[in-house]
Amino acid sequence: MNALRNLPPRLAFLAVFVGCVVLLSFGLYLQHVKGIEPCPLCILQRYGFVAAALIALLGTIFNPRNILLKIWGVLLAAAAIAGGSVSVRQIWLQHNPPEMSTCGPDLEYMVSQFPLADLLPKLFQGEGDCAKIDWTFLGFSIAEWASVCFTLIIVIALWQVFRKQAKS
User: Fold this and answer.
1) The pTM is what?
2) Rounded to whole angstroms, what are the CA distances from 164 to 8, 9, 26, 61, 156?
3) How many CB atoms lie within 10 A of CB 120?
4) Are the beta carbons of 40 and 89 closer than 8 angstroms?
5) Which of 19, 107, 111, 164 could be a cystine partner for 117, CB 3.0 to 4.6 Å?
6) pLDDT tens sequence across 17-70
7) What are the residue boundaries of the structural domains of the chain, listed by start?
8) The listed CATH number (3.40.50.300, 3.40.50.1580, 1.20.1550.10, 2.40.10.170) that belongs to domain 2-162
């Protein structure tokens, strides 16, 4: 347990950043190689992973200490909570599919409302059905795996907030 306490915050942020990049890359692989179109909720989850990755990258670069580490941890947790709440909504839709295939406003409307869409339009386009399960691994859907990953990010972020730092 002492080794975990002495783990530099920078390494925890780096692990989150690398994990988010791997997850986003896998999502792009499923979309562009396997032909699985993301739904609007999948795209919002990608925004959550992008936000978490950017916060973690900045945490890696700046290596915050003391109160700044706590603030950085809260920001990371907030990004993961936002993305995780979207994944939970999609899981609910997958287990309770509506009679009509819909999960909110259409993709064109949603994309037009987010400023990142201007910068990364190819990354965040798709037309899939939010209630449809196109891919599973070990019996879990993409949304369920995303929820697990967002939960892990929240745990790491809260660990950063509440950890006792080793004396320098």
Assistant:
1) 0.79
2) 11, 11, 34, 21, 14
3) 13
4) no
5) 111
6) 999 999 999 999 988 899 888 888 888 899 999 999 999 999 999 988 889 999
7) 2-162
8) 1.20.1550.10
